[in-house]
Amino acid sequence: MDKITPFDINRMLFGDAPPEFLLEVFFRGLALYLFMLLVVRLLGKRMAGELTVMEMVLMITLGGSIAVAMQVPEGGLLMGFVVLTCAFSYERTIAWLTVKSKKFEKISQGQGIILVKDGVLQIQNMKDTNITGQQIFANLRAKKIHQLGKVQRLYLEASGTLSIYKSEEKRPGLSIFPENDEQIIKLQKQVDGTMACNNCGFIISDFNNQSCAECGHSHWVQAIL
């Protein structure tokens, strides 16, 4: 092995390959780019939208598969073409199996998980999916929802997006505004005699300093409309 000289500018810029190899890298990259563009085109419009878990894995595979074929002198273009073709074949096979089998679809794609049910945070589901209350509140505020009572269901979809279904029933709930925004909190309409669990949003009207029946916490705040 040749001795490595620290801060060798020529080695730092060109590596062990001759400078002329950069021109070859350009044409390798162009060929693989055009081929990968064709593969993504054949995969359909789904690849340009929100990705499922399997599609995300495929995109990572596509990106990683061309690195060696494009940059390493010892690696040929044919290897990159074969890997891209294999990735395309795998995705088409999985897509076909997903359409044919609901069980396989559930295994490969996952399914939606309830994070809010009838105005109450589903704490265990949030723990299982590593979703925090503040992340949920931020998404609800973006939809101009200011309290949990307005949410009938909130799902974490298999694609990672949140689907929100508002409740048509007018009911009190836990405020989801930041606690340090005192100005807007003062403008909220409180419901006398109705308390909300500050941990999950569970509502009670016969408050007696008890623990929350939903999550077991005992920190209560005034519910709002």
Automatic annotation (TrEMBL):
Residues 100-176 form the YetF C-terminal domain. Keywords: Cell membrane, Membrane, Transmembrane, Transmembrane helix. It is found in: Cell membrane. It is a multi-pass membrane protein. Gene3D superfamilies: bsu07140 like domains. It comes from the Bacteria. Its main location: membrane. The keyword Transcription regulation does not apply. The chain crosses the membrane at residues 25-44, 51-72, 78-99. Belongs to the UPF0702 family. This is DUF421 domain-containing protein.
